[in-house]
Amino acid sequence: DFIDVSGVLTHGGILNITSYNGYDLTQPSSYTLFHATGFTGDFSSVNVGSNALTKSDELWSGTFSGSSYEFNQATGVLNVVPEPSAALFGGLSLLALLRRRREIVAK
What is the C-alpha separation between 22 and 34, in angstroms, rounded? Predict the structure, then answer.
């Protein structure tokens, strides 16, 4: 679900973003949280789950639980991207399991 405004949306206060109704914010994706003809104002803080994001210009970002989170308050979009080291670890683990399985089958 997202907020659809027919005019300008004014940001303010604390924005808490949580997984809800089938949206799993731990999965890589792009989520449109707000749709409006324009945006004004600033949030005082933005949190994903219990984790605080830090602000640089219009972009709030943070990395935790193996993912990078970026919320652009100028567009109302939250992007969730797996951290490269987490993806690399997962890939290496899969290769190790496949190699072990091949060794067991070969015996």
Answer: 18
Asked if residues 24 and 18 have their Cβ atoms less than 8 Å apart, the reply is no
Listing from the earlier edge strand, what are the strands of the sheet with 54-56?
29-32, 77-82, 67-72, 59-64, 54-56
Helical spans, DSSP H, in the chain: 84-106
**Pair of tokens at residue 39:** 């945006």
Taking only the tens place, the pLDDT of each residue in 32-68 is 999 999 999 999 999 998 999 999 988 999 998 888 9
Cα 76 from Cα 82, distance rounded (Å): 20
**pTM of the predicted protein model:** 0.72
